[in-house]
Amino acid sequence: MKSLHHCVLIILFFTIFDNTGSAQKVIKKINSSVNQDKIYTDMMYLASDALKGRKTGEPGNQQAANYIADQFKKAGVKTIPGMNGYFQPIPFVKYVPPLSGTLSMGGTEYVVKNNLVILDGGAINKTTEAIYADYGWVDAAKGRDDYQGLEVKGKYVIVQGGLPEGGSPAEIFSAMPLKRKMAADHGALGLIEIYNLSFPWNFFRNYFSKERLEIVEGAGGHASVLHAWLQLPTNGNKPTWSKGKSYPITINTPGAATTPVEAVNVLGMIPGKKKKLRDQYILLSAHFDHVGVKAGQPIGNDTIWNGARDNAWGTVGLLAAARYFAKNPPNRSVMIAAVNGEEIGLLGSKYLAEHPVMPWNKVIFDLNSDGAGYSDTTLVSIIGLNRVGAADEMNTACKAFGLTTIADPAPEQGLFDRSDNVSFAQLGIPAPTFAAGFKTFDQEVGKYYHQAIDNPDNISYGYLHRFTKAFLLSALQIANKIELPRWSSGDKYESAGKKLYGY
Fold this sequence. Notes:
The chain starts with a helix and ends with a helix. It has helices at about 1-15, 25-35, 35-45, 60-75, 170-185, 200-210, 310-325, 345-355, 390-400, 420-425, 445, 460-480, 495-500, and strands spanning about 85-95, 100-105, 110, 115-120, 125-130, 140, 145, 155-160, 190-195, 210-215, 225-230, 245-255, 255-270, 280-285, 290-295, 305, 335-340, 365-370, 380-385, 405, 435. It has two domains: about 10-90 and about 260-500, 3-Layer(aba) Sandwich (Aminopeptidase), CATH 3.40.630.10; about 100-255, Glucose Oxidase, domain 1. The model is unreliable at about 220 (pLDDT under 50). By secondary structure, the protein is α/β, with parallel strands linked by helices. The strands form four sheets. The protein has a nine-stranded mixed β-sheet with strand order 10-1-13-17-14-18-21-19-20, sandwiched between helices. Strand 2 and strand 3 (about 110) form a beta hairpin. Helix 4 (about 60-75) runs parallel beside helix 7 (about 310-325) and helix 7 crosses helix 12 (about 460-480). It contains 13 helices and 21 strands. It is about 30% helix and about 25% strand.
């Protein structure tokens, strides 16, 4: 059976390139075009100390964006019609939560840094009332409106934390601005969420007590009203919740400080060579941001989290693909997206998904490149390999450069929904993540993941070279594939795909 499968893959490989030359010629062209020295140059710049860890909203992040755009221009990558250059501006706002504040209700005082987190809103010092509104969620498609029959204008709203149907931490966190906006749209002065999530309160409190960026436009919108979370006492003093019931509260907070922040996605396109297929696109994506400077967590004297593996690695591959396809376009067109803000909640890809620069039903596939690092230089770990209808193309591409694919390592981590691919998967676009080789989050991966030691001096450039060529060839084969990739039957995103493409 193994030898039969191998033969099938070889036949498939040659079939794909029937009209463009033999497979060996294609591989030879990729080998001659993807220069290891250029990969090294890109990595040394993007992960250099000069860029200070490429944190979204900081100068080093914009320097990285400028470099990517300059490489696009030099390669001959086209700007997307309707865009003014390669940059898609993202309207961020930076929040600095208050370091003090209290909320009293039902004889219990909730205190910032203890059992209270205040995410948003201005200064408040008042005694008023709050209305309980279940989850405070509105979903017309599912016939849900937790505000129906409630008069919350000029009042505060108390709701259960998270989403009515549960969800991953990423889904819950990304929905928070929308919940706040729903409350504000109904005239509420603020939103108070009751902590009931499955992950530890201390994690949540510490994470959201730090400064953060949010997008101020889009489906989530922004509403500058109070947004607080509170952890109920473990004793018997818990309130009895009843929808529509009023609860007296006293709020005292100096409010959060807010500052507009400019940041961009970097986008370009390459027209396909087949006229009949040119209006269809394969999307190639990778995030170029990282976590910046961590002065309080040095390794030796190093305080810069350079992010060589995460994710200058994927960005280098994106640039290599841009250069190759600009000179050797596939049958379909290529859209290239270097997205921002992945480290702060996939925000750049989310903004792109919500602000399309072309109709999403014209995009047949997203090949995303991202990862925490690697512990096996013989592997490519493909998150979603067998879910997206292009496994054979990715398998043959990796094999061509001496690499073996592994599908969905560390399934307990829920990795498919933790990278930028999920922003496009939610639209219905088949979207795996092409990651450097690992089988589990072992010590070798953890040694570099979000650490100061993740710098360009610790990269295997031979492996990065092979990985990049496998990424490129995967994209080429998928872009030339006659049959459109489709989600596996029963996949959680299959229904979105059917809706997007009408199949």
